[in-house]
Amino acid sequence: MGFFANADVPVIAAFILYLAMMLGIGFYFSNKSKKTSDYFLGGRKLGSWVTAMSAQASDMSGWLLMGLPGAAYATGMGNYWIAIGLAIGTILNWIFVARPLRRFTEVCGDSITIPQYLQNRFKTSSPVVRMVCAAVIFIFFLVYTTSAFVSGGKLFQVVFNIDPANEAYTKAAVVISALIIITYTFFGGFSAVAWTDFIQGMLMVITIVALPIAMVSATPNFSWDLAMNTPKVGTADTSGYMSMTSGMSFVEIISNLAWAFGYFGMPHILVRFMAIKDTKSVKKSGIIAVVWVLISLTAAVLVGILGRVYLDSQGQILDAASQELIFITTVKKLFPSFLGGIFLSAVLASIMSTADSQLLVTASAVVNDFYSIIVKKEASEKKMMWISRISVMIVAVIACILAINPNDSIMGIVSNAWAGFGAAFGPAILLSLYWKRLTLKGTVAGIIGGAATVICWIYILPAFHDAMPGFIDFVNSLYAIIPGCIVSVILTVAVSLADKAPSEEVLQMFDTAKTEQA
User: Fold this and answer.
1) CB 422 within 8 A of CB 265
2) Beta bridge partners of 46
3) Tens-of-pLDDT digits for all 518 residues of the chain?
4) Measured distance between the N- and C-terminal CA atoms of the chain, rounded to whole angstroms
5) Could you tell me the CA-to-CA distances from 362 to 40, 50, 59, 62 in Å, in that order?
């Protein structure tokens, strides 16, 4: 009973109630996923509200309630540039990608995964593009899912009052969060994920809006001057905390805005566009999604800033290891136990809503874009369903092992995965929808080039800091998605133009998709 000895019973009761509802949805849909197309795409039957909330909830992982507020807590309004970049990316994604991708994936062989769509887009029997996509998805979603399990571990540490120094219990917290996510994703598939994401998205936005209001009400003699005079963590400078530009270079601002590029290449978001019931529902879904994002991102930054003011008034300052717990810490202080448990469930909701989607997309890549092509081309639907579920388990176990001893913050892990997907798939998806001259070879070259550039920028170049410190300092300040996208676009266009033009059949299919979705 040592793990539960310091737990708050009403909080645990709220968690159990919430989790029972989520797992119930998973079991409900377990009997409705008869085919892999149902398991991975819900039969293309999602309505506007479910599509919108599912897309955005799966987008805003644990970093929305932990990583972003933690960064804002430490350094202030400068982090709002990331929120602006994400808002811009959300709007552009719904305008330029959602509707045409829904139509193109249907016209191009009724594709149920992004890799399958990119193969069908060129009417080729070569599996090379699907294999490359599957590898990229597997690598970067392992990183992304790891961030979710790290978030879940930190949440359960607080809920169960676990001392971070107790290594055995902190590892157990990560494993518990992973088991919860795995269970309902394993059984329910896409429909369970989409509907739980809808509920989780509603809970997230209600909680993240309520918390800043409670902080202001609970801060004695609150005024914005208190925030204006708050120094950044580790400094005595009070001039820049509420400034969006103080202490930030042009490169840093551009890097934060560049998060917008990531949206065009996020498989777990793009698959929502593919699953919506028809193109007519896209406009309504887009409006709902954009409103949700604008409210949530603004509130997340306010949680960090107002939480700093509130905790300062209580004589408490979070150290570097605890800054990403600002949301959780203030919820526990401000709300009664059971209500606090419901609000803390919003953190679990943000984690689950992204991790489940990532597990599902990764499994779909393993099954549809690896197993069905390379290992065994012919398999029954029942067998494919079980292979899909086993794939979810395998990916989750690997991510859980990585999460037990993380080497970076939640924000850092997410930013790396975001850059990888944005650079690898973003240019390929946009050009596939709008450029007739795009070829298969150009697409493959761009995906590999974008992913490789991000990996090199983040993990390899910093090792050469002693040899060329000035350049490496620039590398560290420029978000990897920028050079990744540049390299990807150049390679995609150059190789496509050097390659022979697409066949008449491919061009005709492109025209059909453009005409019917207009």
Assistant:
1) yes
2) 276
3) 455 555 678 888 888 888 788 777 766 766 655 555 554 554 455 667 677 766 676 667 667 888 889 988 888 888 889 889 999 999 999 999 999 999 999 899 888 788 889 999 999 988 899 889 988 988 888 888 888 888 888 888 777 777 777 778 778 888 887 887 777 666 655 566 667 677 777 888 888 899 999 999 999 888 877 777 777 776 666 667 788 887 788 999 999 999 999 999 998 888 888 877 777 788 888 898 899 889 999 999 999 999 988 998 888 888 887 888 899 899 988 987 788 888 888 777 777 767 777 777 777 777 777 777 776 656 666 777 677 778 778 888 888 888 887 767 777 888 899 999 999 999 999 999 999 999 999 999 999 999 999 999 999 998 887 888 888 888 889 999 999 999 999 999 999 999 999 999 999 999 999 886 55
4) 61
5) 10, 21, 15, 19
How far is residue 8's CA from residue 2's CA, in Å, rounded to a whole number? 13
Tokens of 239: 């001039």
Neighbouring C-beta atoms of residue 396, cutoff 10 Å: 27
Nearest to residue 198, comparing CAs of 357, 335, 331, 328?
357
Cα–Cα dist 517/279, whole Å: 7
Task: Extract the tokens encoding 339.
Answer: 């209500």
User: Which is nearest to 301 in space by CA: 250, 227, 190?
Assistant: 227
φ, ψ at 276 (rounded to 5°): -60, 145
* Positive or negative torsion for Cα 250, 256, 261, 265: positive
Exposed/middle/buried for 163, CB within 10 Å: 0-12, 13-18, 19+?
Answer: exposed
Across the strands, what pairs with 276? 46
With beta carbons less than 8 A apart as the criterion, state whether 67 and 154 touch.
no
Radius of gyration, alpha carbons of the chain: 23
340 near 11, Cβ under 8 Å?
Answer: yes
How far apart are alpha carbons 200 and 348 in whole angstroms?
9
Spatial neighbors of 315 by CB under 8 A, at least 6 apart, are: none
Residues 6+ apart with CB under 8 A from 86: 259, 260, 263, 293, 297
- Strand, helix or coil at 105? helix
Q: State pTM to two decimals.
A: 0.83
H-assigned helices in 379-439: 381-404, 410-434
Picking from 244, 267, 268, the residue whose alpha carbon sits closest to that of residue 256 is: 244
Q: Is 430 helix (H, G, I), strand (E, B) or coil?
A: helix
Q: How many CA atoms lie within 13 A of 252 on its CB side?
A: 10
Distances (CA, A) of 360 to 37, 182, 268, 303, 413: 12, 10, 8, 31, 19
Residues 6+ apart with CB under 8 A from 417: 140, 141, 143, 144, 147
Tokens of 470: 């000035």
Instruction: Return the closest-CA partner of residue 507 out of 33, 65, 107.
Output: 107
For 163, left (φ over 0), alpha (ψ -120 to 50), or beta?
Answer: beta
